[in-house]
Amino acid sequence: MQMPRGLNGRLFYSVLLPPAAEMSLLLLSMLLFAVVAPSAAWRPWPLMTLNSSGSGSDQLLLFGGSKKYEGSSEFVHLKYHMGPVLTNNITVHPIWYGSWYPPQKRIIREFISSISAVGSKHPSVAGWWRTVQLYTDQTGANISRTVRLGMEKNDRFYSHGKSLTRLSIQSVIKSAVTARTKPLPIDHKNGLYLLLTSDDVYVQDFCDNVCGFHYFTFPSIVGCTLPYAWVGNSAKFCPGVCAYPFSVPSYMPGFKPVKSPNGDIGVDGMISVIAHEIAELATNPLINAWYAGPDPSFPVEIADLCEGIYGTGGGGSYTGQMLEDKSDGATYNMNGIRRRYLVQWVWNHIVSYCSGPNALDQ
Prior knowledge:
By secondary structure, the protein is α/β, with parallel strands linked by helices. The protein has helices spanning 19-35, 102-114, 125-133, 166-177, 219-222, 239-242, 265-283; strands spanning 39-41, 69-70, 78-80, 90-97, 147-149, 153-155, 163-164, 191-197, 202-203, 212-216, 227-232, 290-292, 323-324, 331-332, 334-335, 340-341, 346-348, 353-355.
């Protein structure tokens, strides 16, 4: 299979093949997909700024006096493998698969828009994204600070059924970018494609410690190479796994769920997984950039290293110090444009710790 390459470490291109070669590539792609598993998100169980040059080689880190870093380990060796990262402005194109209510869409849209928002109350989603911005490509250019909400596509009639495989997810994306009416743009340079399945759709391996994953589309299926992620609504299938800590699994007696910040356990649980996948898509879109471990078939990425950590002291089944709204009892750790969210931390490779906003930031 001809793997997609970067232009100057930044751009993606499509691979066009004759029909006979495309059939051979499809078979090879399916084999590769079975061997090289998409990077998956699963659950449960100092302030920093970039200098004016934006260079990754001489960043100014302003560490506060409080302990706001968790999960350090001398055994974690996150390395850059010279692949492209998303240094251009990022546009997220949601695909709403299945039955979605308008309030659910608003929660997710506003989270994506909050990543680049200016003026959100501290601690903020934008502050969380600054850790992701620390990652660079081979030229020293940082991950873009700009993440925009792009065009959207609704697939309310379950065009590929209510049970999807990892490969059929790519077929859903193909339907979205080749639709006769209002197709999503094919954006190799800036686009991320976010497939969101409603709570009555089952995806292969869902709830088996998998709440979402990211990968890139095969030209043999979609016609081009596009980075994408899938995240499912677990409200009916496994909220104790994928909506933790808003729901607690039966194998954790004595633990009480916390109140979700937006009143929807399934969607509030999705937010952290969406954040997880966008962070990893930005730093490892083609599974050849930033990851730990010697085997690219099983990459450990910047969000994988911090699963379940939402604040200082987090790790294992303990989420760490989080904020609680005194008026309604909702639990969160960061503020968006108009809403609050609970989002896991990500790995800071400069200091080799998980880092992010939490209760100590107020």
